[in-house]
Fold each of these.
Amino acid sequence: MSAPGRRTVWSWACYDWANSAYATVVLAGFFPLLFQDFWSTDADAATANLRLGWFNASASLVIVLTAPLLGAVGDRAGARKRLLLAFAVLGVLGTGLLAGVPGGDWLAAGLLFTCATVGFMGANIFYDALLVSVAPRERWHAVSGLGFGLGYLGGGLLYLGCVLAALNPAAFGFSSTSEAALAAFGATALWWALFTLPLLIWVPEPAANAGDGTALGGGFRQLAATVRQLRAYRPVLVFLIAYWLYIDAVGTTIRMAVAYGRSLGFEQGDLIVALLITQFVGFPAAIAFGWLGERIGPRRGIFIGLGVYIGICAWGALIQSAWEFYVIAVLVGLVQGGVQSLSRSLYARLIPPAAAGEFFGFYNLLGKFAALIGPPLFGLFGAWFGDVRYSMLALILLFVAGAAVLTRVRETGPAPAPA
């Protein structure tokens, strides 16, 4: 790959380093804790969790309702970078303003969090779609793995710094843990904004998918044409069904790991260490999976990751000690980013490049819908069998079902572009 090509690839992947700070520091780390303990002081834990659930659902609903159309508009107008920037600005501003929300003001915190999350998820539609234009087709697996790898490293480094500041506020010039935690939102916003610049400067905007009329009208027509011609996209549809099943289990593992560990009696410090382990192991592992996808094919790489996940769930149902939780965190880190990165690059090889924005809109839509199955099943299995350990069986079912459907996917080359 030429020097300008390398610069383009690294500039694109740098956005994963940028926005993964939000996923790690805000989504998985500080916001849920502060929302309950700092902003929802007027409510019990159940009410606070209900409020947080509604704000999360609202952000997901916005993306579910708009993602495919926004992607189609980006394709028609040649505006993937501009739309990415618009959503990133929304995310950065929402995140930064959280640092100034006073204690007890759960409504303001929740609304800003919703805006920031919409910005985070919306920008990812166009970031994923840019993959098809930043590198040759045969390099997509490695480039996708590089992005996820940098994301794990960048998010982990910032999260580590924020955790250290929260645990030792005086050493970092803060008067309290709450002040240090609030400052983490400002640091995340700055990080996100700063490391978005390479993509904006050095990643070229793909050419517009020319059509008659306005970009919005053309986007509607392109989306309608895709829906009408779904039979031509059978490999895409089958892959999306498989992806929906297994990425739901991956996401449930991420969302429920801390709660599961706490229910087994592990200390909060153990859970923080486990999250950091996953982040830093995920950095080289995601890159390695990209290399593996080039050597043995992305589908086989995903199968390896899903097989490891099934083993993780079986072990997780029997776990007794904190050291086992650490080992499981290492195993999750080894395969989490790999499954995510190879899924993205395999999907990119199935779709028409000229309509990548629209198709990654569907991809991100399915990613948001994935939360409909896993977490409820996780909770129901524990309730049905009277022991939270049985919740792991629900995840095994999803991984097995996703793998079974994935066997039906054949990489036949990109689908024809919608008329």
Amino acid sequence: MADHPPGIAAPGALLTDLYQLTMLQGYFERGMFDTAVFEFFARKLPACRNFYLAAGLEMALDYLEQLHFSDAELAWLDGLGRFSSAFLDYLAGLRFSGEVQAMPEGTLFFPQEPILRVTAPLPEAQLVESRLINLLHFQSLIASKALRSVLVADGRLLVDFGLRRAHGAEAAIFASRAAYLAGFDGTATVLAGAQFGIPLYGTMAHSFIQAHDSEELAFEHFARSLPEGLLLLIDTYDTEAAAAKVVALAPRLAASGIRVRGVRLDSGDLGEHARRVRRILDDGGLKEATIFASGNVDEYLIARLLEEGAPIDGFGVGTHLDTSADAPALDCAYKLQEYAGKPRRKRSEGKVTWPGRKQVFRRFDEHGHCCGDTLSVEGDRIEGTPLIVPVMRGGRRLQASPSLEQVRAYVRGQVASLPPALRRLPAAEAYPVQVAPALEALAREADRLIGLATAGPAPSAR
């Protein structure tokens, strides 16, 4: 049985919230097609994050360029009996025709700073809200988590192992991309390798060992079947005994031109096992063989193991990465900031927004570290490097998006600019983001236009 009606793509234009379509019909019936400005931003950082890393822009632009309602989707909507035929005719011709300004993928960002702005006729800008949040939220979430492992791993091999516990197929593939963007070396997810050119890494499962009558036979079988980059899983039964078996097998493999590149640990006290296995390998003449660790690994465990001097050369990071287990969601939003040339803002308790088209200006100290941002209105002239740049006009990219390798190089530059206190895992003093007088004045104007006397409380950072 099909998962969706024939002819309806998944994902497609129907991957949205119902209220987007009901609002669109309301706009359509009232002729509300003036230009709207929406911005995507995170409201605050959780205590276990010192920064966020922007990711997902490539997919967001793909979505906007390809947005349309198919005949099958329109027929299905018609069958709901909720929408007028005139409105459905309008949807049939709807394409995204607006502009997008954004921080480049891989940019560090902080609370209240928009990483993407959409400027388009109101129905278009409204319709894309749900999918844009879906794309930008998830990849930024995972990239931010992944970068923390990159920072503490200090150049050791990092591989995404999260497919099997990711929240769905798209999440698994996008998590691989976000982790690689942030500095991981590769992924075990084959489709991510095919789609994005991410290097693939993989060894064997315990089932491969269990399927053989002996561990020695399993090791030799695997080695002769896949001799390149040979990495053997040694914790199925007795970890140290298996390491000794690898040492005993190595000369026979070497005679066939096969080199044992390393071993993998996946359970128990990884640090203690790594120390014991290292001694066994070294004493057996396999000093060049590496030790790779997996099994409930995250940045906190990596940091602890390395602080304890565990001789581990690389890590497979899975569940905790692909679910961002310690902070599984961004407190983020895509909000209307201007309509028909007038500033707009939300004043809900705890969710106050800054109105208008904004720019983020970043300042750097004498060491090249970012030392503070200013949030202001677009076009303001203040100190700092502006971070938000045009990327789309008339519904089409202004230029080809950078390659994933180019984004990785850009991220390395961003990491170099990160202050030392923010690179560490514990919560640091909040990075300073100040609001310029021009933006405060615009907030007062937005309040005046809807009859509010004061500018209200400022949004908080953490």
